[in-house]
Amino acid sequence: MNLINSVQQKKIPKLFPLVIIFFAGLGFRIYYFPHELPLVIDSLSYFSYATETVLLGHLPTTWTTINNGWPMFLTFWFSIVNLENSLQYMQLQRIISLSLSSLTVIPVYFLCRKFFDNKLSLVGASIFIFEPRLVLNSLLGITEPLFILLSTISLVFFLKYGKKAIIFSFILASFCTIIRSEGIFLFLALTILFFIKYKISKEILKIYLPGLLIFMLILIPVMDYRIEVTGTDGIFLRAAQGTSQTLSITNQDGMTKIFDGIKLFVSYLGWIMIPSFIVFVPFGVIQFFRKRSKDTNFIIPFLIISSVPIFYAYIVQAQDTRYLYVLYPVFCLISLFAIQSYISKSNKKNITIFLLIIGILCSSIVFYEYKKIDYGKERELYEIGIIATQITSGLNHHPMESRYIRVAEIPNDWPFVFHDDMYKINIISTKGYENLDNYIIDSRNELTHIIVDNDSDMPEFLKDVYQNEEKYEYLEKIFDSKNEGFNHQMKIFEIDFERLDSKDLE
């Protein structure tokens, strides 16, 4: 009893600051929570899949998301919670996501604790939980928070708890692979590092092979399901295809793609370093190589292998920084090598560490405020999207379509079976067109209305409609959001094909 009390007395004071950091990070995310906004794009697809699974009582047999581990996880929570409508379940998806993102601070702390003392590890945990991009990402309801949480725990177990922990690491790696196919590279990294650390022997194989078997046994049912529904397992075939395509590139065009991918990788890597990592990581890398040991030597190979699928994504010109977020826990660790050097020169280490944490929080808030989404505008776009679905049947492609017009067509009554027929509005691509008349004439069997605003991504001929509507006599304005009290101006015009035809005859 005395021993238990002694352990508790030692542990609680050390972990109490971590609890405070966790709740601070959770509060940070809740403060910026996008209330009354629906899910869009990828998160909407995950939501629809989870919703249909709950209603059917089994996985959908006609379609699946590419990475269905996250919506499968959501299914459990959706099935045990009783809410009123689809929007509330969408908010639940965001809440689960931000909670998982906040919880990741715990394995990040223990990852840092493997190499540094308690106080420095708390700084590493603070860097992670207040990283503004992770805060924003956690509010989207997509795969990264769960993926980063499990992958970090897997790495911690491998580094901290010896060779027998490889089985648990592999179990987590298998779940990571179901969540995102890049998880297969986590498994590959752990395998390579395992044999580097313990060498190949009969005794080691007796530990490794059961882990490999469990890894595959978890994946096989999911792979079989995906093959049955889509014709591909979404894991090994996808990884093999991406790798072979990259390795087979020999022509000039292919090499250009590789160089473009390298430039995109480097530019995005530099961008995600701002604000905190740009201060710590470069010097941290220098200190890392100065102070490397047997344990720290595993970090670089892990980063290299984990970067392979990211690099491929940028070769095919994926325009998104979130592929790099899985590297953040290791960046936190590397940052501590620099921070350790900084505070070793200070006479008041506790105060220095406290000020560092405050500085990290403040810089994150400033950066987030600078880059945050204008939720007020987004709510207006959603409301306008609802109006658009009620008064139109065929629209030109508009950036809002990918966000709110489609989601406005989703039933409010939950649950529902997702199907393409629920989308009643035809969205007609403007790609390849430079003239409004030609666009309308070619699309007249489906296109009924034109929707425009001052979005910079609109084609020039649609920008002209927004700015000079009086030029287009065959367009009758039936909605102007400015006249309805909205701050953001969106115009919807009904096409008068008789006037257009008579204009062409003239």
Note down, in words, how this protein is organized:
The chain has helices at residues 2-31, 41-56, 69-80, 86-103, 105-113, 118-129, 132-138, 144-160, 166-179, 183-198, 202-230, 236-247, 252-272, 277-290, 299-315, 328-344, 349-371, 375-391, 401-408, 436-442, 460-467, 497-505; strands at residues 394-396, 426-428, 449-452, 475-480, 491-495. The chain has 506 residues and is mainly alpha-helical. The chain has a 3-stranded antiparallel β-sheet with strand order 3-5-4, with helices on one face. It has a two-stranded parallel sheet with strand order 1-2. The longest helix has 30 residues, at 2-31. The protein is globular and about 85 Å long. The chain starts with a helix and ends with a helix. 38% of the residues are buried.
Tell me the count of domains.
2
Strand order of the largest sheet: 3-5-4
Kindly report how far apart the N and C termini lie.
Answer: 98 Å
For the residues shown, what is the average pLDDT? 86
In DSSP terms, counting alpha (H) and pi (I) runs of 4 or more, how many helices?
A: 22
The biggest beta sheet is recorded as: 3 strands, antiparallel
- The count of strands amounts to 5
Compressed to H and E, one letter per element, the order equals HHHHHHHHHHHHHHHHHHEHEHEHEEH
Describe what is shown at a glance:
The chain has 506 residues and is mainly alpha-helical. 66% of the residues lie in helices and 4% in strands.
Write the layout of secondary structure elements.
Blueprint lengths: L1 H30 L9 H16 L12 H12 L5 H18 L1 H9 L4 H12 L2 H7 L5 H17 L5 H14 L3 H16 L3 H29 L5 H12 L4 H21 L4 H14 L8 H17 L12 H17 L4 H23 L3 H17 L2 E3 L4 H8 L17 E3 L7 H7 L6 E4 L7 H8 L7 E6 L10 E5 L1 H9 L1
